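To: structure subgroup
Subject: Chain for Friday's discussion

All,

I'm putting the inputs and outputs inline so they're searchable in the archive.
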Amino acid sequence: MSAAEIAAYPPLLINGTLDTTYLGGLGQSDGVYRRIPYGVPKLFYEASNAGHKVWGGPEDANRYVGQLAPAFQKTFLDGDTHWAEFLDRPPLYVATFESAHLPN
């Protein structure tokens, strides 16, 4: 996939530190995040003390998963940059949080 194709579908990576599956909490997501080409909007949130189903529902791990996921989708799928203000680092339950090239 080219950088232009990836930029058309910005990636949101969410996982939990207790997830031992591929792209789980064993550090694999870090490498994926870093390999996304420069300039592509991206966000990586690793929730502390959460397992594989961290993304399963709005509050499966914590309420911040339920905040970040729809805000990212509204921003990039609907083009509604009003939602970008909700893509900030959660104040709690964070093992890793990185983002780049998000709208202001």
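Points worth raising on Friday:
DSSP finds three helices and three strands in the chain.
The domain at 3-100 is CATH 3.40.50.1820 (Rossmann fold).

D.
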